[in-house]
Amino acid sequence: MRSSDIIRSIIILLLFSIIYSSIIVSDTILDMNKEWAKYRCNPLFMPFASAFGHSNIDNFKYCVSKISNNNMPDLMGPTKLNIDLLGKMGGNLNTNITSSNGFVSMFRDNIMNSFGSIYGILMGVIAEFYKLSVSMKDVLGKTIGVTRTLVYTLEGSITTMESANDTAFMRSLRKISKLKGKSKGCFSGDTKIKLNTGDYKRIDEIEINDTLEYDTHVLATMKITNITPGTSDMISSVYMIPNGDNDDILVTGSHLIYDNVLGKFVCVRDYRDSIKTKRCLDVVYCLITDNHTIPIGEYIFHDWEDTPNKSKDIVR
After folding, report:
1. Interior CA angle at 66 toward 64 and 71, to 5°?
2. The CA-based dihedral angle spanning residues 5, 7, 12, 17, taken in that order and rounded to the nearest 10 degrees
3. Last residue of a domain, one of 96, 131, 152
4. How many separate domains does the chain show?
5. What is the model's pTM?
């Protein structure tokens, strides 16, 4: 048998195989086209929608819309743009694949031209896959950018909240919340307090900017009820502390007084020289000073902001 006969036999077998394969593919395409709704969003068939008589771009948009349900349209805008690009690339790829149908007729005419067409198709497919990889890289980069933007936005929000939490307003709110429900100590209105001039004033007559002894400046004065609203019950019991010629001091038991023996502030009710009385003070008075102390006679009391670690060193 001559070599030319062998070549012709091979060519005939190839042609038969191609024709047979084309028939099988055509039947498969017809079957799938009947059930297109079932397969149209399958990733394996989406790029070849035009082969089933449907637009690649329209089919791709339908599937994307079905999957995403129109969630986050603004955030997914860049991704949608790239998806459209992928759809166009799929259309180009499908066009190249469709153009390969002409390869059968060209193969019958000229084997060399057929090989040239195959080479061109392969190069076209490679080029499209390269474009696809570049587009996917771009989509990934934009997704990372959006994610970073969200992270930076969250970090900025957290920083803003932390900054707002550290403002004077928030500190005041926290301070007020700590004071809520806390029983503050106060004095009877006729309690006499010595000024830096040597004169005495009742505490209910003390004014803002008065200067007490030991150069203690008055920042605020307060008049406070000692009766629980809606009842006749006192909020704080009244204690008496002897004060020599300056009259006894009537003060609520929750007020803080400096104990020279212990070297710290203690509640009046726990002070060794205090005596609990049955006196009822409907209204009590207190001060806020620059050093958070109120000197009365031989005693040092804390002011309204009775947190011991706020007061300055006791100097007598």
Report:
1. 80
2. 150
3. 152
4. 2
5. 0.42
The phi and psi torsions of 276 (rounded to 5 degrees) equal: -75, 135
CA distance 87 to 286: 79
Full DSSP string of 243-269: -GGG-PEEEETTSEEEETTTTEEEEGG
Residue 14 belongs to some domain of the structure:
no
Q: What angle, rounded to 10 degrees, do the helices at 3-34 and 102-109 form?
A: 170
Q: pLDDT tens for residues 21-45?
A: 888 877 777 777 777 777 778 777 7
- Cross-strand pairs, 202: 192
CB 292 within 8 A of CB 312: yes
Q: Which residue has the tokens 């459209």?
A: 84
User: Using CA atoms, how far apart are residues 35 and 90, in angstroms rounded to an integer?
Assistant: 21
Do 204 and 296 sit in the same domain of this protein?
Answer: yes
Nearest CA to 286 out of 303, 299, 301 is that of 303
Q: Which residue has the tokens 């007729």?
A: 105
